[in-house]
Amino acid sequence: MGQNCVPLARNGGTVLIYGVTHAEDILPIHPFDVFRREITILGSFAEATSFGATIAALRTRRIRTEGLITHRFTIDDYDKALHALATDPTAHKVIITP
Questions:
Q1: What region, left, alpha or beta, does residue 78 occupy, with left being phi > 0 and alpha being psi -120 to 50 degrees?
Q2: What pTM value is reported for the model?
Q3: Domain ranges for the chain
Q4: Could you tell me the fold of the domain covering 1-65?
Q5: Which residues pair with 43 in a beta bridge?
Q6: Mind listing the pLDDT tens digit for each residue in 37-75?
Q7: Residues 6 or more apart from 2 whose CB is under 8 A from it?
Q8: Which of 6, 31, 61, 63 is most buried per CB count within 10 Å?
């Protein structure tokens, strides 16, 4: 599934590889796509023990999240959400709600 990340990223976009994997796991990507489309690949290590502190910080608003979600659509407007992602440069985080 991870091999789909680079093809689905927009030109100049960032792919974040987040979580814990096995040491022998391999993610097949096409390096030509990465440099031709100027894709950034970042890694982030997830620690199960940090989730509680993160949730607490979000609940108490110690972490500011305003502006992270740029667009919201209902499931009925799924086509509009995809159109916004494809054409609107301000569409960064799009949420689709049931």
A1: alpha
A2: 0.47
A3: 1-65, 66-98
A4: Rossmann fold (3.40.50)
A5: 17
A6: 999 998 887 676 778 888 898 889 888 878 888 999 999
A7: 17, 27
A8: 6
